[in-house]
C-alpha cells in the first residue's frame, strides 16, 4: 500500500465508514462534496456508482492536493494541518486540527508532516 493509500484509508475511517453511514451509502469514503467522477450529489455530498469509483475519486483528489494541482493553494510543502483546514474547515462545523491530529496518529506521523511525503513513493 502506498503512503497516499494509507492517507485515504485513515480519512475513510475518520469519516465514519460503516454500514448505513452517509459515506457508505454514497460509496464516498472521503465524504467528498464534489468530484468530477461522481454519479451525482445527495445532500451536498457526492455519490458514486461503486466503492471503487469513490475510492479512486478520494485518491485522485488527495493526489492533486498533495501535488499542488488544485485551487486550494495547497502545495507539496503544505502539512496535514493545512490539508484538513481545506478538507474539513471550521467554517463547516469541523475541527481541522483535531482531524489532522487523529489522522496523523493513525498514520504514525505528526500533523506537521508535509504532503510531499505522501506522494514520494508514487513515481
Structure write-up:
By secondary structure, the protein is mostly helical. It has helices at residues 3-14, 22-25, 51-66, 80-87, 96-107, 116-119, and strands at residues 40-42, 45-47. Strands 1-2 form a two-stranded antiparallel sheet. The chain is built from 6 helices and 2 strands, in the order H-H-E-E-H-H-H-H. Helix 1 crosses helix 5 (96-107) and helix 4 crosses helix 5 (96-107). Helix content is 46%, strand content 5%.
Give the tags:
123 residues; mainly alpha; two-stranded antiparallel ribbon; 6 helices; 2 strands; 46% helix; globular
Read across the widest sheet, the strand sequence of neighbours is 1-2
On the 0 to 100 scale, the average pLDDT is 97
What is the helical fraction, as a range of percent? 40-55%
End-to-end Cα distance: 14 Å
- Indicate the low-confidence ranges by residue numbers: none
Largest sheet: 2 strands, antiparallel
Number of helices: 6
How big a fraction of the residues is strand?
A: under 5%
SSE-based structural type: mainly alpha
The shape is globular
- Cα-atom Rg, whole angstroms? 13 Å
Number of strand segments: 2
Give the ordered list of helices and strands. HHEEHHHH
Q: What's the short story on this structure?
A:
The protein has six helices and two strands. By secondary structure, the chain is mainly alpha-helical. The model has no long low-confidence stretch (mean pLDDT 97).
Topology (SSEs and partners):
Layout (H helix, E strand, L loop, with lengths): L2 H12 L7 H4 L14 E3 L2 E3 L3 H16 L13 H8 L8 H12 L8 H4 L4
Antiparallel strand pairs: 1-2
Helix pairs in contact: 1-5, 4-5
Amino acid at each position: 500500500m502506498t503512503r497516499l493509500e494509507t492517507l485515504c484509508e485513515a480519512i475513510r475511517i475518520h469519516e465514519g465508514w460503516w454500514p448505513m453511514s452517509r459515506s457508505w451509502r454514497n460509496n464516498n469514503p472521503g465524504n467528498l462534496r464534489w468530484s468530477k467522477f461522481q454519479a451525482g450529489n445527495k445532500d451536498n455530498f457526492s455519490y458514486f456508482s461503486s466503492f471503487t469509483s469513490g475510492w479512486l475519486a478520494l485518491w485522485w483528489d488527495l493526489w492533486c492536493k498533495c501535488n499542488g494541482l488544485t485551487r486550494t493553494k495547497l502545495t507539496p510543502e503544505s502539512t496535514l494541518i493545512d490539508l484538513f483546514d481545506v478538507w474539513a474547515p471550521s467554517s463547516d462545523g469541523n475541527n481541522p486540527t483535531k482531524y489532522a491530529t487523529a489522522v496523523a496518529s493513525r498514520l504514525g506521523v505528526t500533523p506537521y508532516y508535509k504532503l510531499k511525503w505522501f506522494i514520494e513513493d508514487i513515481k
